[in-house]
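Appendix B. Raw example, untouched.
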Amino acid sequence: MTSTPDDHGFGPDPIVVMKFGGTSVADPSAIRRVAEIVQAAAESESRPVLVTSAMSKVTDALFDMVTRSAAGHVRGAQDVLDGMLARHRTASAELLDEPARCEFDALLEEASRNLTELMRVVSRHPGTRLALQDEIVGQGEHLASHLLALALRAKGLPCIWVDARQVIRTDDQHARAIPLQEEIVSAAQRLLMPRIEEGQIPVLGGFIGSTLQGATTTLGRGGSDFSGALVGAALRAREIQIWTDVSGFLTADPHVVPQAHTIPQLSYAEAAELAYFGARVLHPQTIKPAVALGVPVRICYSREPDAAGTTIDGRRVVSAQGIKAIACKRGITVVQVTAARMLGAYGFLRDLFEVFARHRTAVDIVATSEVSVSLTVDDASAMPGIKADLSTLGEVHAQEGYAIVCVVGEGLRNTVGIAGRIFGALSETDIALISQGASSTNLTFVVWEKDVSDVVTRLHECFFEAEAQPGSPAKVAP
């Protein structure tokens, strides 16, 4: 039955897109927890749509298979494949009744044949690696979504598997495809809405999509979150839930600061900054579709479904201490270009950034003086070519071994004394670059990677531990 929209354009039984991460479907006990979570959602006023990652570590295994095959080590790749399939077979034996298990076993046999043949092609023709890689690594989500749908159906939930490749339509850029928004909306309305209206619960794999010609693509590592957001935006969901193994966004990395606590609410801008600069709670791209339609995103802890987690929405709330979190990103390379002709010239920065664009390398931080530009990248794989091209503009120096520290909070720029407190706490730290001004929600700087844990710890002590702060203690699954 079609629901009547409320004042916000949503029905009284709104759609909730629930994306489950790899640890949430890692084994039979985790999948049973998912069943309880989905059952509770189905019994409420929500109409759930599920998007799942591959089982934890499966995507890594599939990439390993591609690497081994391209190097000619087909036997080693086959061993990895056999182990991955055995893991799924063991899980299905514990979760499914005989008819469903036979159905899934047939799917595993088909996957085995297809992957074995793809590995042979990659081995014999390494030039096909990138084109076939998406077909191979996408099998993790393909299998996990089938298993999840069957397991939930065995629990009495009206789940139906939907091929995500028919919904997430993309361009033909392999390994990091760009979604085609209009086509995704059309496909979601055509393929998902009728099932939702019939009371079914669609289950899709994340991370994977396809071109308009039908070739499998992927959205890049961590792209399952992106898939969930794309589906949520296409369906105009009331909420996008990211179920994971942490209790939400935290005030700092709990592996660095064990006493870090959960942040109850973040603005879209704050969450995007934290995600981009190292908070591994969700994929940075996840925010984009949600922002476009104002769909709230909630980070949920799969081991404690009743915990509040972190809500990300359009509210811009300034915290009492002036900042909400500290993020860090390691493995940073600082590039400096010095050129006397830069003085008073125009077009220099355009030429410089065109070099990075040609090499498909993103730049994080930029600082300029009259005759030099310093910037950072977190992917130095194309650095030899970048340096060669930059040398036509001036003297180039690149240095690895740095880390970015990002202090995030709404109103950061307008809160008097924040910068003084930050750099006062770091008075003995060697700071290579400082960036503030492009965003009112962050202050970013670069330090040596060997110092980053100490820097984050001291900043957390300064802003969050001087007195008790609101929020829940950090929770990370063992």
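End of appendix B.
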